[in-house]
Design goal:
Radius of gyration: 44 Å
Number of strands: 16
Oligomer: single chain
Strand content: 5-15%
Largest sheet: 5 strands, antiparallel
Shape: elongated
Length: 830
């Protein structure tokens, strides 16, 4: 008895059962790998199968233009499988109703030679494929006519028609094959691409003409299944279109099936109309449409055959996964699935962008912390370290060559240390005595006391220079840290804004659409960007007639009722081309409005003043009014003041913190010139939603608020910007009221009464005596009073800005729409 050869591992004995299980496992693994290979090659098998059916397809009884057109497109798009496609095309033509494998093979061969010739000259491109197909078909078919038994104009005409069809089909397949294999990159299909896909599928079904299974025509079942698939995915328009295209091509392949065009079109329309009911409803609509027309145009046997073909197509539809239908719907414009996929794509883009911006913000935050840690590590050298520094430096230069070094620093260390400390104090206080004024205690103890004082003075000067540059480095690092922190904050705010805009607001958009259409207005689209209270942003697309202004008079008041706050039209963008809708942007109406006036004069009546002013809306519901006074007069002063305001305005509009923005402007003015140039800044930022106003003064004169018969001064004491690295920024916050008037001025106005007069009281009296409330008239009157006070002489640059704050009520805000449901706002992203 032979001994079984087994391998025994420690603790494990392989039995016959174990070997059987391992063998089964290897078989399953091999089968799984085979299935994976098949799935990886699924598009290859699909394209080769399509080639077989297109090779078999015949239209108008003798024309076969599909094969060469398909081969040309595959040659450019899938170079790896074109030999298999060529073989499949020839095999399909061999099994056609009128076999013509030789002519199909000749057409492919001629086209292949053309392509290789162009490749030799590097001119083979996909755009040249239709011309090459036309030429190849024309040559081969002309040759077949000339060697045939009969020459006639009809045969020549058929040759030209077949070549032209090959040209057109090549263009169709170029569009359709990427869609069929799902290699097209765009998220939606054009109508032309959808039609080309229908033509390709109908052409494939033409290759199944003549196949009958249990009395059911294969092309009829396939065409109705395709009709159901597209009707369920795209609705009635797409279903009817598929029916027309499929019926037309099938009727060209079989003259007895001309009725299929009207039958499929009507069935596709009914199936699409009932798509909301699901697969069963769509299948019922198709069955109803085919049955009605079959009764009118066919016999009883034809009706039963058509019914069973419809039942077979409906059965295939029931077996089709819902995911496949949703995939088709995502590519069809106008469907809910397509709109949802577009929203999902935009949401993903927003999320990715917001995450990336947040990462950049964190990078800047980390850089800011790094610079801050460097500055924190640079601590001020304490007194003991200073003394130690001087002692070592002076002892190295003065005492190292002295014969009494050991006596002073070893025997009398404490006495020597005290004397050196006293000398150090004298040097710091800059009262170094001359040779005869040196204290006797110093001279008695140290034979080089005068030399020690000289060395100590030199070392102290070096120390001061060193500390000065260390301070410069420290200030520069602190500025960089602050600016990086500001940039980080701006980017973090941007990330939050992007995330907030990415919220799904389909229900709110639909609620607004129903409310607008309930008033008899039809809008083409509504996009909600933001529903945050006080920062609403809604875009509406419409095509109303010109001159009616429905948006301001109807839609804005309606949105106000729905959202519970005043909504106004922010901007309107007319269409650039005819047929396009008009875009209207609605947003939260400001609760307060600012009306401004400005008056000014240059010193001595010159044209160029050293004062600059700015009045700008910052874009975040805030309005800024600013005055800057440059040092001196003329062009140089104008440059400094205008530069300060321009940079400050841009930083504020970008969302940077006010204090950090002012510090950045100060640093720019310090670094841009080595001359002593500076500028004052007087800034007021008004919140148009609450009227809360923040005043920021840097070296500027007081501002005044006129409230009825009361005049309230706003003052601060600090230096202008551009003088010191570290400046004090005084912030004064004040709640303004409707009807308040803010008066801001340069020193040319404020200093007009002279030194002997209380300027603040004098200015309060002048402002209180103004009889007008119009901002421009107030500015002109105030400037005129100051000029008259100096008997018409303009002794300095003068600028006065007046801003009046009033409660703002949008036009047509009094309109109300009873029965409107208040919208529930989504929670904002924190």
């Amino acid at each position: 008895m032979e001994k079984e050869n087994t391998v025994v591992l420690p603790g494990i004995k392989r039995t016959g059962l174990a070997q059987t299980m391992m063998q089964k496992g290897r078989e399953w693994a091999a089968a799984r790998r085979f299935i994976q290979v098949i799935l990886a090659k699924k598009w290859t098998f699909l394209l080769v199968g399509v080639a077989f059916l297109l090779g078999r397809a015949v239209i108008l009884e003798s024309l076969m233009p599909f094969a060469i057109a398909y081969f040309a497109v595959i040659y450019f798009m899938r170079r790896d499988i074109y030999p298999w496609v060529a073989v499949s095309l020839v095999a399909g033509s061999w099994l056609a109703a009128d076999p013509a494998p030789m002519w199909i093979a000749m057409e492919i061969a001629v086209l292949f030679l053309f392509l290789k010739g162009l490749e030799a000259y590097e001119r083979a491109e996909l755009s040249s494929a239709p011309i090459l197909v036309f030429a190849s078909t024309l040559l081969v078919q002309m040759f077949s006519v000339f060697i045939g038994d009969e020459l006639s104009w009809y045969n020549f005409m058929l040759v030209v028609v077949e070549a032209a069809l090959g040209f057109v089909l090549t263009l169709v397949f170029i569009q359709a094959i990427p869609v069929l294999t799902m290699t097209k990159k765009s998220a939606s299909l054009k109508n032309e691409e959808i039609i080309c896909l229908m033509i390709l599928l109908a052409s494939v079904m033409t290759g199944a003409v003549g196949w009958v299974f249990y009395g059911l025509s294969a092309e009829h079942v396939m065409s109705r299944y395709m009709l159901l698939l597209f009707a369920l995915a795209g609705g009635a328009p797409l279903g009817a279109s598929v029916g027309v295209v499929a019926g037309l091509i099938l009727s060209l392949a079989d003259f007895g099936a001309v009725v299929q065009m009207s039958l499929l079109a009507f069935a596709g329309l009914l199936a699409g109309l009932l798509r909301d009911g699901g697969k069963m409803a769509a299948a019922f609509g198709m069955l109803l449409g085919t049955s009605i027309l079959s009764i009118y145009v066919g016999s009883q046997a034809d009706v039963m055959s058509s019914t069973w073909e419809s039942v077979a197509a409906a059965t295939l539809l029931m077996l089709t996964p819902r995911s496949m239908i949703r995939t088709i719907s995502r590519y069809v414009p106008g469907t809910n699935e397509h709109a949802k996929s577009q929203h999902d794509y935009a949401k993903r883009v927003r999320e990715v962008t917001a995450d990336r911006v947040s990462q950049y913000s964190e990078v800047f935050q980390q850089l800011s912390r790094s610079f801050g840690q460097l500055n924190n590590s640079v601590t001020t050298i304490n007194k003991e370290e200073e003394i130690s520094h001087f002692m070592n430096a002076v002892a190295e230069r003065s005492c190292s060559s002295c014969h009494r070094q050991n006596a002073c620093w070893e025997d009398k260390f404490f006495h020597t240390y005290k004397m050196m400390t006293d000398m150090m104090t004298v040097v710091e206080e800059k009262r170094v005595p001359s040779g005869k004024e040196i204290p006797k205690a110093w001279s008695a103890h140290c034979v080089k006391s005068s030399q020690v004082l000289v060395d100590m003075s030199q070392q102290y000067e070096l120390y001061q220079n060193n500390m000065h540059w260390k301070k410069q480095i420290y200030d520069s690092r602190q500025l960089v840290a602050d600016q990086l922190q500001g940039v980080s904050q701006v980017m973090e705010d941007l990330a939050k804004e992007i995330k907030r805009e990415g919220q799904t607001l389909h229900l709110q958009e639909e609620q607004i659409r129903e409310a607008v259409e309930g008033l008899g207005l039809s809008v083409q689209g509504i996009d909600i960007v933001s529903l945050e209270e006080g920062n609403v942003d809604i875009e509406v697309y419409h095509s109303f007639g010109q001159g009616y202004d429905e948006c301001r008079k109807i839609i804005a008041p309606l949105l106000s009722d729905i959202l519970g706050e005043h909504i106004a039209v922010k901007s309107e963008f007319p269409p650039t081309r005819s047929g396009e809708p008009t875009l209207v942007a609605f947003g939260s109406a400001k609760q307060y409005g600012v009306e401004t006036g400005i008056a000014g004069a240059a010193k001595g009546g010159d044209l160029l003043s050293g004062d600059s002013f700015s009045m700008v809306e910052l874009g975040n519901g805030k309005f800024a009014v600013a005055i800057s006074d440059g040092m001196g007069n003329g062009e140089r002063a104008r440059q400094e003041s205008s530069a300060a305001l321009s940079i400050l305005q841009q930083l504020l509009q970008s969302g940077m913190d006010e204090k950090l923005a002012v510090k950045s402007v100060n640093s720019v003015l310090l670094l841009r010139s080595s001359d002593e140039v500076f500028a004052t800044v007087d800034l007021a930022i008004v919140d148009l939603y609450t009227a809360q106003t923040t005043f920021m003064k840097i070296g500027s004169t007081p501002s005044f608020i006129k409230r009825g018969n009361e005049v309230i001064p706003i003052t601060a004491n600090n230096l202008p910007i551009g003088i010191l690295q570290d400046i004090d920024v005084d912030f004064v916050s004040m709640q303004m009221q409707s009807g308040d008037t803010l008066v801001m001025m340069s020193d040319g106005i404020y200093d007009a009464p002279g030194l002997a007069v209380n300027k603040e009281l004098w200015m309060k009296r002048i402002i209180n005596e103004l009889e007008t409330e119009d901002p421009q008239e107030m500015a002109d009157a105030l400037l005129e009073k100051v000029v008259r006070h100096h008997n018409g002489e303009i002794i300095d640059d003068m600028t006065v800005v007046v801003a009046r704050i009033d409660k703002h009520l949008p036009e047509w805000a009094s309109f109300r729409f009873p029965g409107v449901t208040r919208m529930e706002r989504p929670r904002t992203v924190s």
